[in-house]
Amino acid sequence: MSSTVAPPAPTKSTPTDYGTFVTSVMSRMTKSTGKLDQQVLRQCLGLASSYLVSDTTMSPASGLASWHAGFNRLVDVLVALHRRNELELETVSQASKACSECWSVAGTWRELEDCRESVRGIAVRLKSILDENGHTYRGGHVYVP
Q: Domain limits of the chain?
């Protein structure tokens, strides 16, 4: 007599939420050190395209909104740092690269095509802090695809 073991029931994964992730990271950072670590901001920016895919895939109803909220929070911080003359060139370049990657991701999957409007809006905000030529930040070359 052979006994068959049923495979384990699939577990449902909790949807990702870039907005919550960004808020949590920034909150922990400012509580522990009292300032914003731009290396950590760059790491958060580097995850933007991955969260775009996972947020919108795992939560079709609210995924784009959560991703959009997270990316915009980061851009709010960059604009504030720019106004305080504290924004680092490397952080601006990482933000530009994140926009480029998100644009590519949004164009790769038909289901994410509507995300391009969000990416375009973020890119416009970032471009507003660049030098007049749109390719440098305070004289330093910014990542441009």
A: 18-134
Q: Of 19, 114, 3, whose CA–CA distance to 66 is shortest?
A: 19
User: 40 in the Ramachandran plot: left (φ > 0), alpha (ψ -120 to 50) or beta?
Assistant: alpha
* SS3 of residue 56 by DSSP: helix
Cβ atoms 64, 119 nearer than 8 A: no
Structure tokens belonging to residue 3: 């006994």
- pTM for this structure? 0.88
**What is the distance between the terminal CA atoms of the chain, rounded to a whole angstrom?**
64
> Any residues with CB less than 8 A from the CB of 42 and at least 6 apart, and which?
90, 91, 94
From CA 124, how far away is CA 33, in angstroms rounded?
Answer: 31
- Which residue from 89, 79, 59, 81 is spatially nearest to 122, judged by alpha carbons? 79
Q: What is the CA radius of gyration of the chain?
A: 18
pLDDT tens, position by position, 55-101? 998 898 899 999 999 999 999 999 999 999 999 999 999 999 999 99
List the structure tokens of 95.
């933000």
pLDDT (tens digit, 9 = 90+) per residue, 26-59?
999 988 888 899 999 999 999 999 999 999 988 9
